[in-house]
Write a structure and sequence with these properties.
Number of strands: 11
Helix content: 25-40%
Radius of gyration: 20 Å
CATH architecture of the largest domain: 3-Layer(aba) Sandwich
Distance between the termini: 49 Å
CATH superfamily of the largest domain: Periplasmic binding protein-like II
Shape: globular
Mean pLDDT: 89
Strand content: 15-25%
Largest sheet: 11 strands, mixed
Low-confidence stretches: 7-34
Order of helices and strands: EHEHEHEHEEEHHEHEHEEHHHH
Number of helices: 12
């Protein structure tokens, strides 16, 4: 069997399409359908990064297990895939959810539609990278960093070092952040709400709304910095390293590194097996294949320069600084509490 991909918007993807895709794999391979002959993956990680890894799993099983991958093409794909999994909860089509962040994975956990799995990770795995009930596990993270335009801010002492400087009037309209309604920016401020308290987080967001340039996404923030439209911005390491690799005058700062500061937030990819999935054994085998230092190294070596969680990883990504990073201590499950009401509040605040 070979890797079969299904690329469609969430709205247009149907049960008929998935059945047809699965049937095509089986017919092309000449195999007789078996209960665990395929594993269906919904992936929010971009196809260019995830597809070669899923194909490697396909090859590693000596044609015993094929992979059907669905890669959404919408910009809000994480939300869309999560909502699709919720809509399919009574009759799951997906076996394994590969999310490129975490908050919506926790949302699915809290709705009770994920299955506990015996994750093959060391006992020293960070507690914030594995679910309290074993329903998801995090790996291969991105960090939330400040990207600085060095032409506009040549003096190191003049550069920002904290996330909350987005609200500082001295940077009015000279700094940028993505609208915190989707993806890692939404996750970031849900985490800050848990750390700071709801009122303090909302006050900070209001100040940022009034002070910073608010853009549609992290990529747009990174490009605004590299082009000199703003002096600096809050973005993700994968977007930041692209601008640096392209030769733009930018530097990456890991924020909030002082002892009295919260540290830099890292947001992992997550894997989760769906409760009642059609192929739970195959899903578990694929999950174990992905949750390894070797796969983290592949993601670290790729263009997105993802940050391995495993201490057995052998490839330090180019985006990491030379000095050790103080990571923020996070309770993602607590940060996801009351998500719908919090998301509505932010949507109202950032409506314009």
């Amino acid at each position: 069997m070979s890797l079969k991909t299904v690329c469609a918007s969430t709205a247009s993807f149907s049960a008929t399409q998935l059945v047809f895709a699965a049937a095509s794999v089986l017919l092309c391979s000449g195999c007789v359908p078996r209960s665990e002959s395929d594993v269906v993956v919904y992936s929010a990680l971009d196809e260019e990064f995830a597809s070669p890894i899923l194909a490697a799993f396909d090859r590693s099983t000596d044609n015993e297990i094929g992979v059907i991958g669905k890669f959404d093409i919408e910009s809000t794909k994480t939300v869309g895939l999560a909502n699709q999994l919720i809509s399919e909860a009574d009759a799951p089509r997906c076996d394994l959810f590969w999310n490129n962040e975490i908050m919506h994975t926790v949302r699915l956990q809290k709705l009770g539609i994920l299955e506990s799995h015996d994750w093959q990770v060391p006992a020293t795995w960070p507690q914030d990278m594995i679910a309290s009930d074993g329903t998801w596990c995090g790996f291969a993270a991105r960090a939330r960093v400040l990207l600085i335009n060095t032409d506009l801010l040549p003096n190191i002492d003049d550069r920002p070092t904290r996330v909350n400087e987005l609200a500082d009037p001295k940077w009015a309209q000279k700094c940028a952040m993505a609208r915190p309604l989707f993806g890692t920016t939404a996750t970031h401020f849900a985490v800050l709400r848990e750390i700071m308290g709801r009122d303090a987080a909302l006050e900070l967001l209001q100040q940022i709304h009034d002070n910073a340039v608010v853009l549609s996404g992290n990529k747009q923030v990174a490009q605004a910095v590299s082009s000199g439209k703003v002096a600096w911005g809050l973005t993700d390491t994968d977007d930041a390293i692209i601008e640096k690799d392209l030769g733009y005058p930018v530097e990456i700062i890991y924020p909030d590194q002082q002892p009295d500061q919260p540290g830099t937030l890292r947001i992992p990819n997550t894997l989760a097996v769906l409760k009642g999935s059609p192929h739970p054994i195959a899903a578990g085998k694929l999950a174990d294949f992905l949750m390894t230092p070797e796969i983290e190294d592949r993601l670290a070596m790729g263009r997105s320069s993802q940050l391995p969680i495993s201490k057995d990883s052998n490839f330090p990504p180019a985006v990491l600084p030379n000095e050790p990073v103080r990571w923020m201590r996070v309770d993602f499950e607590a940060a996801a509490d009351d998500w719908d009401a919090w998301a509505k509040t932010l949507a109202d605040l950032f409506a314009n």
